[in-house]
Specification:
The protein has 175 residues and is of the alpha+beta class. The protein is built from three helices and eleven strands; from the N terminus they run βββαβαββββαβββ. The protein has helices at 53-60, 80-88, 139-146, and strands at 2-7, 34-35, 44-50, 68-75, 91-92, 95-96, 101-105, 125-132, 151-159, 162-163, 172-174. Strands 1, 2, 3, 4, 7, 8, 9, 10 and 11 form a nine-stranded mixed beta sheet that branches.
Length: 175
């Protein structure tokens, strides 16, 4: 079984917690499924869950090279050399990233976020579409910060062939 969930902002990618933070169990009432990869607390979008351990491993393990696509709202307007650095891979504390596919895009059609991102009157924001084939902890955020364009909002729209499509935020479908 596969579940495709549109994870809201500030929800943990786990079913239980000792804190008062929202978790998957607050949204998903399907027993026996587990995350195939995670999204951090501050990220939104597509989360794939399954009851198949082998499939979970093929999706989550970077050795399998499963591509993940993100819409990334960044601070500033990235210059071509900043985008080129992402395309070549950047050196982070835990090593060099694999090359990313990245391009500037118009603002995607997405839901409003609560709370909204911080706005600065004299600093513009831009949207990027970024595709990676690994999934290190907070990798996209660290990559954009490394090139001088901090991430303000991060939405995963694709994992392999699965797409977020029109799944409402906080809802899931069986894939």
């Amino acid at each position: 079984m596969i579940i495709l969930f549109n994870k809201p902002f500030q929800v943990l990618s786990q079913f239980t917690t000792d804190s008062d933070k929202a978790v998957l169990a607050d949204y998903i009432d399907v027993p026996g499924v587990y995350c195939a990869g995670r999204l951090d607390y501050d990220s939104e979008g597509l989360l794939v869950l399954t009851d198949d351990g082998r499939l979970q491993q093929r999706i989550a393990n970077p050795a399998h090279g499963k591509q993940k696509g993100y819409w990334v709202q960044v601070e500033g307007e990235p210059r071509e050399e900043q985008l080129a650095a992402l395309r070549e891979g950047v050196v982070l504390r835990d090593g060099k990233t694999r090359p990313a596919r990245v391009e500037r895009i118009a603002s995607p059609r997405v839901w409003s976020r609560t709370p909204p991102i911080r706005e600065r009157k004299n600093i513009p924001t831009s949207w990027l579409q970024l595709v990676i084939s690994e999934g290190r902890n907070r990798q996209v955020r660290r990559m954009t910060a490394h090139v001088g364009c901090p991430t303000l909002r991060l939405i995963r729209y694709r994992v392999g062939d699965w797409l977020l499509d029109d799944i409402p935020v906080g809802h899931y479908i069986r894939g």
